[in-house]
Design brief:
This protein is an alpha/beta fold. The chain has one domain: NAD(P)-binding Rossmann-like Domain (Rossmann fold, 3-Layer(aba) Sandwich), CATH 3.40.50.720. Strand 4, helix 4 and strand 5 form a beta-alpha-beta unit. It starts with a strand and ends with a helix. Bound molecules: zinc ion (ZN). The site of zinc ion has 9 residues, from helix 5.
Amino acid sequence: MHLLQLGAGSGGIAVLDLVARDPRITHITLIEPDVYQPHNVYRHLFPPSAVGQLKAELARQWVETLRPDIHFHTLIADITAPQRQAEFARCAAACDVGVCAADNEAAKFAFDALLRAAGKPWTLGEVLSGGIGGWVHRFLPQAACYGCVASYLQREVVEQPAGPPPDYNQPQAAITETTIPASKAAIAVIASLHAVATLELLDPAGESEPACPEAVPGFTSLLVSLRVVPGVFEVPYRTHRLVIPRSADCLTCGPTAALPTGDALDAAVDDALARLGSR
Ligand SMILES: [Zn+2]
């Protein structure tokens, strides 16, 4: 099976390391433009001597050491780059499952648009600022898009202040990048859950033949607390499962939505961003 992954930062490389060990994965395409920096070393797999090399190349070498049989293709590119979209669309069409480990909203929306247009399932992991917890989201072709999930989480805060589970009231924090560095331990917890959820999409029934991804039960978004933070998490090590529906008027995934391309894709992204409000 073919994995398309976006991002090989501290979380992305941890997910990639775990998923790439599964023998069902035979092809990997990794989109990652960044160079390994000195400040990455503390939470990443690679030593200080790797600073200055491309993260994608380091990831390729790491995976090929584990799995010499795997076909590993790197794209040194920004997922939002307009001139590369046709190439990215071909990658999405060729993959069986996607992993998003991007750290910014534009990249998540772009990845969602590509995988949705290709009709492929994908997963997203997000570590909360300071490593207090994190999210794992699953996106299936017939289910809510990233814009629906992001706006749902924010609406819950605005419209239902008493409604959320008692352990958190700031789900919007999950879709911002970690502004306070998380420990590698916290990153690894969320990355491991992200990897498990990804592998489940390959074979949700635990059978030898991949089952229909739409059959995966349980959750759209899984929130995990790792620490007590007053007003956010009252209890550590607790999970919340959210099943988030498609927004009926979503231009990206709603019943009347066509597969967006070109200007329509730009409009859909603008719409989704607008529904995210002030972010
Ligand atoms: Zn949607």
